[in-house]
Amino acid sequence: MKFSSKGVAGAVALAVATVVAWWGWLGHDRSYQVDANGNQQGPYTTAQVAFCVLTIAVLLALAVRFLDVHPLPATAATTVAFTAAWTIDAASQDGSGLFLIGGVLVLIGCAVGSAVVAFLADLTRGRDGFTR
Question: What pLDDT score does 46 carry?
Fold first, then answer.
């Protein structure tokens, strides 16, 4: 596996963009909502999480297709960046240590989701005139 300097820079840019997307959609939200039954939910809404995932998936696909980022470093960049951002934030708010379980679940979900998106984006390369 050979990595170009453009691909390495793209992976770094993808990691930064992932943290920015996390912050924009989730990182600054500390408010909880009360549902019709009086139960407290949050701090994230389903729409926030969905748009965060969609934003990162689009960034990841663009990085693989147009910035020459190989799927493996692209997957690692999004997974490590998002998991680190989420875990650091969760650790600052949780004295029980349960954030570690959430961090592992976020890591697994990010790794699987990122791998699927990255490899699908890579499979479509070259079919529309773009080549690696």
Answer: 87
Q: Which of these, 34, 57, 44, lies nearest to 90 by C-alpha position? A: 44
Of the pLDDT bands very low, low, confident and very high (cuts 50, 70, 90), residue 118 is: very high
Per-residue pLDDT reduced to its tens digit, 53-68: 999 999 999 999 988 8
CB 132 within 8 A of CB 65: no
Q: Which residues of 54-83 are buried (b: 16+ CB within 10 A; e: fewer)?
A: ebbbebbbbbbbebbbbbebbbbbbbbbbb
- 131 forms beta bridges with none
What DSSP string describes 53-67? HHHHHHHHHHHHHHS
Write out the residue range of the structural domain in which residue 68 sits: 5-123
Which is it for the CA torsion 21, 22, 27, 30, positive or negative? positive
Domain assignment present for 35: yes
In-domain check, residue 85 = yes
Predicted TM-score (pTM) of this structure: 0.85
Element (H, E) at 128: none
Instruction: Indicate whether 129 belongs to any domain.
Output: no
